[in-house]
Design brief:
This protein is mainly alpha-helical and about 400 residues long. It is about 55% helix and about 10% strand. The protein is built from 13 helices and 16 strands. Strand 4 and strand 5 (about 100-105) form a beta hairpin. The longest helix has 25 residues, at about 5-25. The radius of gyration is 20 Å and the shape is globular. It starts with a helix and ends with a helix.
């Protein structure tokens, strides 16, 4: 494969990342109360002042990762914004739960008052992600310790006692293993152990990482022909719509998490599983042959999913597909993976970026028309798009430097 097209991709991805960063630097900062606005309209106007804790954490992490690892983003305004965002999180995000342990709010008012707490772990996960990455930039060991303490709480909720999340076990409720939980914990394992020596804490993360991998891999069902979003706690298929649900974007994201983890520990078998089952299968199942793009949800038996948005084309699955396919190609050098990357690349960059006002649209119809024109909301913030562009730029740098 000639480097010409890859070089063209790298330059485009780089310019897109610069554009996206500048959009959020310009429009999302709350210079009065701290933190970030995430409900941002097409042209950058703030249409709701509520602050979603998981998006606050994601933005702190993204700013810090760019500042720490990319020379052109080592700019004082990015560090200042990240530091201010971290201070806002530490001051307001944590609330006391019914069990007496700290939990994070899901949503805050502009000045930091808790509005809503969810019975899940994801606000806490992005709190950990943000504080650990910010501690790496600032050298604040207390912040790193706080991240590790919250991580211990998360592991306790997931593996020992979920009652602290406030979810009672109802008689008709079947215990379920959702792929989102071990995926997110694996992401945190890699974050907290990255570049740190093999002390006791890192070794405990090694054990947790193995558990996460085992939990994720058991979502490969139907004799290896499908990745299902939900399985029973012992790794069996669940009945009904819940058990038949496929989320191609999530499976692809799991694919590149597993690829990274396998590369970290030299596990070739895991990397092969990641490519064959978590990259190729969800791509093949999820691609819309008629209109292009990836479906949001699918039913493994071909029934119509009950999620109203199942056929829409959302920004984040395409972001995950770009990372997963390019990373899989770098590992395997299989040309068909690169061709699939280019297919997703062409669809993504011809539909999601807004050439007029900057950043990306997030929600398209099945046919690829813009359905919702805002740039940020309760679920879309400064994370999936810049993380994708950042990751792809780094992989393309590597491919173009180490041609084989």
């Amino acid at each position: 494969m000639s480097g010409g097209k890859l070089e063209e991709c790298r330059q485009h991805v780089r310019s897109q990342l610069d554009n996206v960063v500048n959009f959020w630097l310009k429009h999302s900062h709350d210079n009065v109360h701290g933190g970030f606005f995430t409900c941002i309209g097409r042209e950058g106007q703030v249409y709701d002042e509520l602050k979603y804790v998981w998006l606050q954490g994601r933005q702190v992490w993204m700013y810090c990762r760019l500042y720490r690892t990319v020379d052109r983003f080592r700019r004082p305004e990015i560090l200042q914004a990240a530091t201010a965002g971290g201070a806002f999180l530490r001051k307001f995000a944590r609330v006391s739960s019914s069990s007496g342990r700290w939990k994070c709010a899901f949503c805050l008012t502009r000045d930091g008052k808790a509005v809503k707490v969810q019975r899940s772990i994801f606000s806490e996960c992005f709190y950990v992600l943000a504080l650990d990455e910010l501690s790496r930039v600032t050298g604040d060991q207390d912040m790193q310790l706080e991240a590790e303490q919250m991580m211990q709480q998360l592991v306790h909720w997931v593996r020992v006692d979920p009652s602290g999340l406030g979810r009672p076990q109802l008689p008709g409720d079947v215990p379920t293993s959702s792929m989102a939980v071990p995926m997110m914990l694996l992401c945190l394992v890699q974050q907290l152990s990255e570049g740190r020596d093999g002390g006791g804490g890192v070794q405990s993360y090694r054990e947790l990482g193995r558990w996460c991998v085992q939990q994720i891999v058991q979502h490969v069902q139907r004799d290896g022909s499908a990745v299902l979003e939900n399985v029973s706690v012992d790794g069996g298929e669940l009945p009904g719509c819940l058990g038949r649900l496929q989320n191609p974007g999530h499976a692809l994201e799991a694919g590149w998490f597993l690829l990274q983890y396998g590369a970290q520990w030299g596990d070739e078998d895991l990397q092969t599983t990641a490519i064959n089952k978590f990259v190729e299968l969800p791509y093949e199942r999820g691609w819309d042959e008629e209109h292009g793009g990836l479906f949001y949800f699918l039913d493994v038996d071909g029934f119509c999913p009950t999620q109203l948005e199942w056929s829409m084309k959302l920004w984040w699955p395409h972001c995950e597909a770009l990372i997963a396919l390019l990373m899989a190609y770098r590992h395997s050098r299989r040309s068909e993976l690169l061709q699939r990357f280019f297919q997703v690349y062409e669809y993504t960059f011809s539909h999601f970026p807004d050439a007029q006002s900057g950043e990306w649209f997030g929600y398209l119809t099945q046919e690829g028309k813009v359905a919702l024109d805002f740039k940020g909301g309760p679920f879309k913030g400064f994370f999936h798009v810049p993380r994708c562009l950042y990751m792809c730029e780094r992989i393309l740098d590597d491919l173009l430097t180490n041609k084989t």
